[in-house]
Recover the amino acids of this structure.
């Protein structure tokens, strides 16, 4: 059985899965829009999304996990990882 999700259902699914804090509100919106555009037949897997993607507030936070010499700027990150920008200026990367 399939259920078509809208943006609100998608965001609520994170709360129901106990993963509400995994992404910011803007991050969930950006992830939803990216999935809708790039993977329209995607079957929702909240845990899978939480394992595959991480959100960073800014480059400084990103550099806590990744070497700044390897990734000096957003363009360098985009050359090796999928990057989804949010409206608030944070960004989501694929692991």
């Amino acid at each position: 059985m399939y259920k078509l999700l809208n943006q609100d259902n998608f965001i609520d699914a994170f709360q129901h899965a106990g993963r509400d804090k995994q992404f910011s509100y803007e991050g969930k919106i950006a992830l939803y829009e990216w999935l809708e555009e790039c993977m329209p037949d995607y079957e929702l897997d909240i845990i899978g999304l939480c394992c595959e993607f991480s959100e960073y507030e800014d480059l400084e936070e990103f550099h806590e996990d990744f070497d700044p010499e390897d990734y000096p700027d957003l363009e360098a990150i985009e050359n090796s990882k999928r990057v989804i920008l949010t409206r608030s200026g944070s960004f989501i990367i694929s692991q």
Observations:
- Residues 9 and 15 are 10 Å apart (CA to CA).
- Helices lie at 7-16, 25-38, 46-52, 59-62, 74-78.
- The chain has a mean pLDDT of 94.
